[in-house]
């Protein structure tokens, strides 16, 4: 495996494929830190296993696990799930993992961004994050994939979605946040994105849904179903706390064209009817630790059905026990008639700060 510091994917003809393109496999990391996952992470581990086992119905899945958790993870994960030893600070491989890129010959490489736990010492969620920051290199080593290393550029995978044909969607709230790359201007950030994702058009949304956790990652509010078609969450209920942001996302996208000049088709999927609030009992199961953002009873989670993962022939969708669970699945069946839509109950993951998209990372087929 080579580390490439003197070129970029754009210069070498590599681009980030859309998530809807064919995957070789998906990656996950195993949760265990008790200051983020309640009850020693036991309930979360069962849900992570359910997500991995659901993905395994569609494509290979590899889960990175610490030595201490190897036997436990092996017991909960299906036989068709590959388990490898990778130490990490937490389990958000979407954000700390590599971003894979591919060229027209089908060769695959990766980009290893800097990771600083969603804002570093400014407003990051835990310290230290050094093990997370080494995850991309470890995955690339295991896969023998050459890896681009930009010169000090902080980015998380959950803050980007591409159409694979030159269009990228991001939020200003996240990419321009002071905890990421405060020394860079918006134009300089755009140049990094153009070079390392090989995109020609960047669609800037103003905000995402979770200002506190990820500074508004795009993967709760917009993704591509296929080139020319985006999906956003929606509600007409003005009392819904996410009404304002959904409508703002719609305004930012309506009438926009993509890199190929197509006017975007905007698909809407429902928001939850009732919000998810962390209960007293759930909060009491978390071990507070210095250096980690506290989780307190009554806190509202940024729960979104949009934090789903596209897999080969399928869509793995968060479910919350909400009145709109089935409507979200139905909407995705209409948007993706070519895929099987599978729901997984993920309250435990949203209590930890994310959902299915945040805990997974796709590796394109070479
Ligand atoms: O992508 C995400 N939503 C990750 C959130 C991290 C939460 C850490 N407690």
Descriptive account of the structure:
By secondary structure, the chain is an alpha/beta fold. It has one domain: 5-stranded Propeller (L-arginine/glycine Amidinotransferase, Chain A), CATH 3.75.10.10. The protein contains twelve helices and 18 strands. The chain has helices spanning 9-12, 42-55, 70-76, 93-96, 120-123, 130-143, 172-175, 186-197, 243-253, 280-284, 325-335, 347-352, and strands at 3-4, 14-15, 23-29, 61-65, 81-85, 99-103, 108-111, 147-148, 161-162, 167-171, 201-205, 223-226, 229-234, 265-270, 309-311, 314-319, 340-345, 361-364. The strands form five sheets. It has a five-stranded mixed β-sheet. A four-stranded mixed β-sheet has the order 5-4-3-18. A three-stranded mixed β-sheet has the order 9-10-11, sandwiched between helices. The radius of gyration is 19 Å and the shape is globular. The two termini are 16 Å apart. It binds 6-aminohexanamide. The site of 6-aminohexanamide has 13 residues, from helix 4.
Mean pLDDT: 97
Uncertain residue ranges: none
**Beta-strand content estimate:** 15-25%
How many distinct folded domains? 1
**Morphology call:** globular
Give the full name of the CATH homologous superfamily. Answer: L-arginine/glycine Amidinotransferase, Chain A
DSSP, total strands: 18
Bound molecules: 6-aminohexanamide
* Helix and strand element order: EHEEHEHEHEEHHEEEHHEEEHEHEEHEHE
Query: Helical region count?
Result: 12
